[in-house]
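In response to reviewer comment 3 from the previous cycle, which asked for concrete evidence that the modeling workflow produces usable outputs, we include below a single protein chain processed end to end. The sequence was submitted unchanged, and the resulting structure tokens are shown without manual editing.
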Amino acid sequence: MSYDPEKTVNKDDPLTACTSKGEDWQQHNSQSGTGDFRSDTRAMLAALIVGALLTGLKFYGFWITGSSAILSDALESIINVVAAAFGFVSVIVSHKPADESHPYGHGQIEFFSAGFEGALIMLAAGGVFYEGLRQIFYPLELPNLGPGLLFLVTAAVGNLILAMVLLKIARRTGSLVLEADGKHLMSDVFTSSAVFVGLGAVHYTGWFRLDGIIACVAGANIIFWGTTLVRRAFGGLMHKADPELLDEVCAILAEHKKNKWIDVHRLRAWRSGQRVHIDFHLILPRDLPLEEAHSEVKLIEGLFTKHYKAPDILVHLDPCLDPDCPVCANRICDHRQEDPTQEKEWHRKNLIGDAPSHKRIG
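The workflow returned the following structure tokens.
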């Protein structure tokens, strides 16, 4: 049968329907991406403005009390503001579309931003430990603790609300920058809570060294959060394997598997900001016409477009070889050399490596 480019499209054809749905989803994802950009930028701008105001409250609390613990909390909040400013710029850059100089988009800046924020968190921990140890070895009396604690609680509640909002938006949009800033604010809330409890004890016991001890405990927590962010950012920049994403991709392929999809191998998938990049080798019957093979690729692209926002899909087609016969489900085949004897499960461990028949040809 000859191929007629002018033939009427059959809307009932599964491939046409899937491709049509994929195009609808691309339009939907484009609109959704615009909404995510607005949500992310507004959230980061709010974090910047609110963070600056709450930091001012903490420094005022330190000014009237002289507490090392409150100062350490205020120093961490300065890092919050700097990180929010950097994150705001990162969100804007990460949503820029791919161009000639950045063919894979600009999403990797989110990992850099998260790593930068984690490094700043650990830097703030150094200042926290310094002030805490100074108060332990050279304790000073703390005046006006009552009003100072009131300002501290107000700032902590504000940070808690802001952190919850940022993390909620991050879960919806998948923004690593918002997640990093939200977790940073949560660590700040923990620090403020520890400082509040410690200073409350100082207020009733008069043991001023406790002020420094609480500051050091808070500093240890800050280092934990900072290290977590840096490790995750480093993994993203180095394209560390994402088992959760790979499992999702395998599940989609397995759910829609067709007999002519003989095998999949060399599966790779990674995230870059809002975008998902997926590439793998697909083994098809060696005598399948090019037009039909291309249709299978378009079908697969449509499947992934329904699950991810503007995914970047690359499918390398391989012709089947005789060693593929044991896993091939095509019963009627002129090239079959042996009957099907294996049922290969399409899960992560089976798809990320080479197919036995293609190790020698790459």
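Residues 1-33 have pLDDT under 50 and may be disordered. We consider this sufficient to address the reviewer's concern, and the full set will be provided in the supplementary archive.
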